[in-house]
Amino acid sequence: MRAEIVSVGDELLKGQRVNTNAAFMAAALAGIGVPVGRIVTCSDGEEEMASVFAESLERADIVLVTGGLGPTRDDRTKKAVQQLLGRGLELSEEAFANLAARLGQRGVELSGSLRDQAMVIEGSHVIANTRGSAAGMILCCPERFQNHYLVLMPGVPSEMKAMMELTVLPWFAALSDTVIRHTPIKTVGIGETTLAEMIVDIEDALPGGTTLAYLPHAAGVTLMISTLGREQEVVERDNRTVVDAIARRAGKFIYATSEVSLEATIGAMLATRGLTVAVAESCTGGLVASRLTDVPGSSSYFLQGFVVYSNQAKERSLGVPKETIERFGAVSEEVARAMAVGCLEKSGADFALSTTGIAGPAGGSLEKPVGMLCLAIAKKTSGVLLSKTLFMHADRELNKFRFSEAVLRELWECLQQD
Amino acid sequence: MRAEIVSVGDELLKGQRVNTNAAFMAAALAGIGVPVGRIVTCSDGEEEMASVFAESLERADIVLVTGGLGPTRDDRTKKAVQQLLGRGLELSEEAFANLAARLGQRGVELSGSLRDQAMVIEGSHVIANTRGSAAGMILCCPERFQNHYLVLMPGVPSEMKAMMELTVLPWFAALSDTVIRHTPIKTVGIGETTLAEMIVDIEDALPGGTTLAYLPHAAGVTLMISTLGREQEVVERDNRTVVDAIARRAGKFIYATSEVSLEATIGAMLATRGLTVAVAESCTGGLVASRLTDVPGSSSYFLQGFVVYSNQAKERSLGVPKETIERFGAVSEEVARAMAVGCLEKSGADFALSTTGIAGPAGGSLEKPVGMLCLAIAKKTSGVLLSKTLFMHADRELNKFRFSEAVLRELWECLQQD
User: Fold this and answer.
1) A127: closest CA among A95, A102, A96?
2) Using 50, 70 and 90 to split pLDDT, how confident is the model at B107?
3) Which chain A residues are closer than 8 Å to B105 by Cβ?
């Protein structure tokens, strides 16, 4: 079974809204082993919708449509389907009762336009709307499309999601005979090209039904290993074989094989061992602290952050010696080490991280270009563990993020060896 | 002129990534008066891409494609276009020089797969990639599609955005005979419904060709006023009339009528007056410092940040009295005020902001629920200017962002009155 998704809405075509509905539906369908072949966004004109629905129904077994079921004039999805299938409308007692119950609570009368919300295409299976008033529909289409299914849902995300979970997914899961397994392999500190070269032979020998996708983002790459098949056991085994092979090859760059962030991975390692951390930031401007404190429960291991942009702040808040700054410059491993040591002392934490660098766009020179980062990590029991200089070459915002990723990666490595 | 957008990528069809690229491109095209008819997401199979490209080229004058130009094996966009148009590849000297310059700096050799990145479809106009290695292309297609345009760009958002702004938009703006004017009205501290009620009569009386869209986001609403027409002067006048009317009505919630962030607006106000700022953060965990330092040139006014998660850090780094914390609790306006005053003293800045609250998910109580924020602002010359308690009710990440927005909004108001 193959699906397509049709998103109806001019606000999507004007770029005023990002199509998060389609991603939700696609992921949900993948979860029941139904791959999505195409996602089409179209305007809410009757002719346009009717032809988009027809094209999708010809290609796919299931077509999920969202949008155009509301009470206003630009909601024409039902009209388009009537035109396409030559069917009429009928009142759904079930949808009408739902509507009356919902609105009765709010003391609103059932006007004509509200009653329209309970009118459905003849012969549909009604999808109850537990979050709103427009009824959804599942239509089997023997007229033209060899029993392919057309599913109509509202575009309001909360209404669509509830319909998917309560009705649509169980309905099609029962018809699907496919099992699927996705495993993300989350890496840091390695680029797409280098990683691809490192695992080229594994990629060449993927078992049937297994695919490997590169999902690059600002600071690294996530590999997604997906296995599709009929037997649960075979699917799990094939998927695990590939994940294990890649883990053996590129293990030093892999921080997780599940949907978890680098900062959460580090947080779990610190929490498990009862260790604490503090950060001293110049060029990352608070981003490292902010990422670490994005993790729920981080107050148990994150003690304190110092954002020391000015030289004076570095001296006063962290005790970085004035002469170190004067002799080596604020962007130097010497200053990074002094910041880390000062941060340890002021905070009393077990680990301290520091960053000093040039995020840009101004402030660079030939010796110290924009994108240069000096970082250090120190540990209460053993002093400075490492300091490093790295060079990124991006814009300010991306540099800040890559700087933060670099120092978090070093901490993650230290914790692995700890 | 009409456009379509094709997004290539299995990760989009699996719902592993939300298609933000398409929204960006659609909004950008709207900005030069080119409406988007459809957005199609398809898989990276060669046959599939070739047929999607062909269908779109038959319907639209311009087809923008993103994805499938990278160095890995699942990057097959160029192959699909070769198949579709029957053209070969040629080395682009320009793209190769760009690649060599980029990678030379990092000391990496130009391997075969990297050289492939500089190969383009014969007869294309090359779009320089200022953020990455894969070259983009603009192809005029006289072979099959009556001089319709096919534009190929990488799927990495930063690379695609730079290509759109530097090359693609100027190229097609010159071919478009429609004038369009968009003005964003950026608000803070007011919800969509309240704002809509406040300007209902202005919305009812919009001039012809002018539309008003609500773009709600995590912390507020941007109103987008768009005017479309043939004559520059009329378009500008109609657009300005609406913007001015809304500004008169809702001025106290509007911080900008251009694409600028709240932090950049504040930064410009500080820089102009030669004032400096420092921040003391508990619940925002460094996010306020990070947002302020996202602004280029922020080192001229941002002195220092203190991320004081633990009570001990509040006492030691900012001199918050232990008894204040014990008597009122760490989340209290009393502590927020003491943090702001301590931050002023330790940093020497002209303004100090502070936040203390409960981001969640744990740590809430009936009196102090998750989403509670206490904030304060102090000024060197006059001490504490204000303290406030606010209540948000969202998840941890959204609360952190809303907390940061709330304290930045208060600073913005103080600066307006200053």
Assistant:
1) A95
2) very low
3) 391, 393
Spell out the CATH class of B262-417. alpha beta
pLDDT for B142 beyond 80: no
Q: Are A135 and A118 in contact (CB under 8 A)?
A: yes
Across the interface, whether the CB atoms of A13 and B37 are under 8 A apart is answered: yes
CA distance A273 to A416: 12
Report the C-alpha gap between B221 and B253 in whole angstroms: 10
Among A289-293, A374-378, B88-92, name the one with the lowest average pLDDT: B88-92
User: Would you call B13 and A19 a contact, using CB atoms and an 8 Å cutoff?
Assistant: no
Please enumerate in sequence order all residues whose Cβ is within 8 A of that of B386, keeping only pairs 6 or more positions apart, or say none: B376, B377, B410, B414
CATH, domain range A179-256? 3.30.70.2860
Which tens digit of pLDDT belongs to each residue from A19-40?
999 999 998 898 888 999 999 9
Residue A48: count other Cβ atoms within 10 Å of its Cβ.
16
Q: Report d(CA B215, CA B224) in Å as an integer.
A: 7
Place of tokens 């077509």: A63
Query: How far apart are the CA of A92 and the nearest CA of chain B, in angstroms?
Result: 32
User: Which among B400, B401, B417, B343 is positioned nearest to B377, based on CA atoms?
Assistant: B343
Looking at residues B350-363, what average pLDDT do you find? 95
Both tokens assigned to B32: 């030069």
Helix (H) or strand (E) holding B414: helix B396-417
The helix or strand, by DSSP H or E, that contains position A91, with its residue range, turns out to be strand A89-91
**B293 → closest Cβ in A203, A285, A347:** A285
Q: What is the pTM of this model?
A: 0.77
Strand partners of residue A3 = A36, A62
The pLDDT score that the predictor gives to residue A330 is 96
User: Pairing mode, if any, of strands A277-281 and A302-308?
Assistant: parallel
Kindly tell me the burial class for residue A31, based on how many C-beta atoms sit within 10 Å of its own C-beta (0-12, 13-18, 19 or more): middle
Spatial separation of the C-alpha atoms in residues B347 and A372, rounded to whole Å: 26
Helix (H, G, I), strand (E, B) or coil at B28: helix
Per domain, the residue ranges of chain B are: 3-173, 179-256, 262-417
Question: Which positions ≥6 away from A260 have C-beta within 8 Å?
Answer: A186
- List the helix and strand counts (H, then E) for chain B: 17, 17
Asked if B24 and A35 come within 8 Å (Cβ–Cβ), the reply is no
- List Cβ neighbours of A317 (8 Å cut-off, separation of 6 or more): A306, A308, A342, A346, B304, B306, B317, B346
Three-state secondary structure readout of A302-360 = EEEEEEECCHHHHHHHHCCCHHHHHHHCCCCHHHHHHHHHHHHHHHCCCEEEEEEECCC
Site from B7, B12, B19 to mutate, A interface, most A CB atoms within 10 angstroms:
B19
Nearest CA in chain A to B68: A214
Contacts of B13 in chain A (CB under 8 A): 26, 35-39
At A9, give phi and psi (nearest 5°).
160, 125
pLDDT of residue B365 exceeding 80: yes
Of the candidates B29, B38, B290, the beta carbon closest to that of A285 is on B290
* A49: closest chain B residue by CA: B38
A3-173 adopts what CATH topology?
Molybdenum Cofactor Biosythetic Enzyme; Chain A (3.40.980)
Determine the distance in angstroms separating the CA of B23 from the nearest CA of chain A, rounded to an integer.
Answer: 4
**Residue of chain B with shortest Cα separation from A216:** B156
- Interchain CB distance below 8 Å, B15 and A38: no
Chain A: give the shortest CA distance to residue B418, in Å. 25
CA gap B294, B188 in Å, rounded: 19
Q: Which residues are CB-contacts of A258 (< 8 A; sequence separation ≥ 6)? A: A183, A184, A186
Provide the ipTM.
Answer: 0.76
